[in-house]
Amino acid sequence: MAQDYTKLTNTIIINETLLKLYSDISRGVGIDKVFPYVVLAQQFHLKPILGSVLLEYLQNAINNNELTDEDKALLIKIAPYLALSAQYLGLRGGLTYSIQDKGVTKESSDNSVSLTQKELGDYIKNTEDLADLAKQDLLKYLCTCGHPLWYPVNDCVCNQFNDEVIDTSSKVDYQIYFPRFNNNTKCSKC
To answer: Is pLDDT larger for residue 146 or for residue 166?
Structure first.
């Protein structure tokens, strides 16, 4: 059976509740307005971290309602990063500005006051900083608890989180150390 990549592309791996919980997107904003930025954030921010195999696995598991406890734990760690990345992309112009037949217009509400350019710039920078913190938290989770389908892009990714000290005082002829692998899904480091 052929893979339906159109469906996978449109499968966001966090729901509207988590999106709004971990971002400043208000309850009044419909998911249809934010959906394009979640798809872009998933494709360009999250996919390089998870890799294609794990991202497609999670999308299929969501579509088929086959999430394991390990998958759910990972999705909880993904949610803040994906939500903040989507917010960041939306703030870069998409949620405030739209292209109309008469040109680029700024959307506003009668009951709101627009931010100044400096305030908007500071807000965008703050969102970017929060997304970076959420990214580090996600990477730490992946490096310490792992997922069977996740492998770091390079060896240096997990070195910053390796707080375990290897005892090199004992004489061992062949020592192999895998700090991130833990077959117990109830990882104490998570």
So the answer is: 146
- Taking the C-alpha atoms of residue 119 and residue 42, their distance in angstroms, rounded to an integer, is 27
Q: How remote is the C-alpha of 151 from its chain's centroid?
A: 16
Write out the DSSP string of the chain.
----HHHHHT--SS-HHHHHHSSS--TTS-HHHHHHHHHHHIIIIIHHHH-HHHHHHHHHHHHTT---HHHHHHHHHHHHHHHHHHHHHIIIIITTEEEETTEEEE---TT--PPPHHHHHHHHHHHHHHHHHHHHHHHHHHHHT--TT---SSTHHHHTT--PPP--SS--SS----TT----SS-TT-
Query: What pTM does this model have?
Result: 0.76
Closest CA to 78 of 129, 34, 131, 6: 131
More confident residue, 104 or 66: 66
Nearest-angstrom CA–CA distance, 6 and 61? 16
Q: Residue ranges per domain, the chain?
A: 5-100+114-159
Q: What's the mean per-residue pLDDT of the chain? A: 78
